[in-house]
From TrEMBL:
<dbReference type="GO" id="GO:0004673">
    <property type="term" value="F:protein histidine kinase activity"/>
</dbReference>
<keyword id="KW-0418">Kinase</keyword>
<keyword id="KW-0812">Transmembrane</keyword>
<feature type="domain" description="HPt">
    <location>
        <begin position="118"/>
        <end position="216"/>
    </location>
</feature>
<dbReference type="InterPro" id="IPR011006">
    <property type="entry name" value="CheY-like_superfamily"/>
</dbReference>
<dbReference type="InterPro" id="IPR036641">
    <property type="entry name" value="HPT_dom_sf"/>
</dbReference>
<feature type="domain" description="Response regulatory">
    <location>
        <begin position="1"/>
        <end position="77"/>
    </location>
</feature>
<protein>
    <submittedName>
        <fullName>Signal transduction histidine-protein kinase BarA</fullName>
        <ecNumber>2.7.13.3</ecNumber>
    </submittedName>
</protein>
<keyword id="KW-0808">Transferase</keyword>
<dbReference type="InterPro" id="IPR008207">
    <property type="entry name" value="Sig_transdc_His_kin_Hpt_dom"/>
</dbReference>
<dbReference type="GO" id="GO:0000160">
    <property type="term" value="P:phosphorelay signal transduction system"/>
</dbReference>
<dbReference type="Pfam" id="PF01627">
    <property type="entry name" value="Hpt"/>
</dbReference>
<dbReference type="GO" id="GO:0005524">
    <property type="term" value="F:ATP binding"/>
</dbReference>
<keyword id="KW-0067">ATP-binding</keyword>
<dbReference type="InterPro" id="IPR001789">
    <property type="entry name" value="Sig_transdc_resp-reg_receiver"/>
</dbReference>
<keyword id="KW-0902">Two-component regulatory system</keyword>
<keyword id="KW-1133">Transmembrane helix</keyword>
Amino acid sequence: MDCQMPDMDGYEATRRIRAWEAEQAAAGRLVRRVPIIALTANAMRGSRELCLAAGMDDYITKPFQQKTLFDTMSRYVRLEAPCEVPPEQPHVPAGGKPVGGDALNPASLDTLRELDQSGKLLQRVISAYLADAPRQLKNAQAALASHNAADLRLAVHTLKSASKYLGADTLAATCLEIERSATNFQLVGLDTRLAAAAAQLEHVIDELQSLLPQEA
């Protein structure tokens, strides 16, 4: 369960699911309890307790390892053990040098490679990020310009989660700072932090583009 969904967040969705289950039980209907595992990029103290209080069964922070996901889910449902995937060698572009830079955490990229040895999953995730991240940044800039703290928080939260998933840890940390300020309606000075996020995003995009197959 994504804790930060738009319109209705994961906490409210979970409360409604649990309320529906209680209604069915009160009416004498047999309903299997739905296991709900929180999925969030928020690792702040108290987040786990907040998820459990809403009725969730467990808690995973992004980015996560395949084993963490499997171990957590297997507590509630029967799963077949995931197959072992040999680590993939770093992508080497036409220039002959392995891709590397300070904008991305290689461990996060390796996690995606472990999920799909063909590399197609990583390519799809990167392509989706390249299409959406600049749009989220523009949304954040527009929200700040109009002093709309709620829209600003949503835009940087979305950018933060996607960036963290791909290992753009510095950008994700900057987005988290902005998100916390927007949550507290403290917008003064955020133009500087948002400009920093824009510069960081440029570096992230450059490194991600180098991971995609080059067109002939």
